[in-house]
């Protein structure tokens, strides 16, 4: 299993309802291991198994939910 983390800075993230909706939606993607969100910094961090999902698919899901991505950063982890 190859693991990575993706960090998305979003426009449109405004309240706890958004946080819950994003967590619920991203958790349905195969390979997503964890989702954490800072509504103060408007940043979503996703840890995932790269054999199940890729950063672009996660980003497309966020955009489909109506969020605009301002910045994306990905870190691959060597196990």
From TrEMBL:
SUPFAM superfamilies membership: HMA, heavy metal-associated domain
Superkingdom of this protein's organism: Bacteria
InterPro entries on file: HMA_dom, HMA_dom_sf
Record-level Gene Ontology MF annotations: metal ion binding
Coiled-coil portions: none
CDD domains: HMA
The name this protein goes by in its record: HMA domain-containing protein
Organism the protein comes from: Butyricicoccus porcorum
């Amino acid at each position: 299993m190859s693991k990575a983390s993706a960090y998305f800075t979003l426009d449109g993230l405004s309240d706890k309802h958004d946080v819950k909706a994003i967590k619920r939606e991203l958790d349905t993607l195969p390979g997503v291991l964890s989702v954490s969100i800072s509504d103060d910094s408007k940043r979503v961090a996703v840890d995932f198994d790269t054999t199940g999902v890729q950063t672009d698919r996660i980003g497309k899901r966020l955009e489909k939910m109506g969020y605009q991505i301002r910045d994306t950063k990905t870190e691959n982890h060597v196990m």
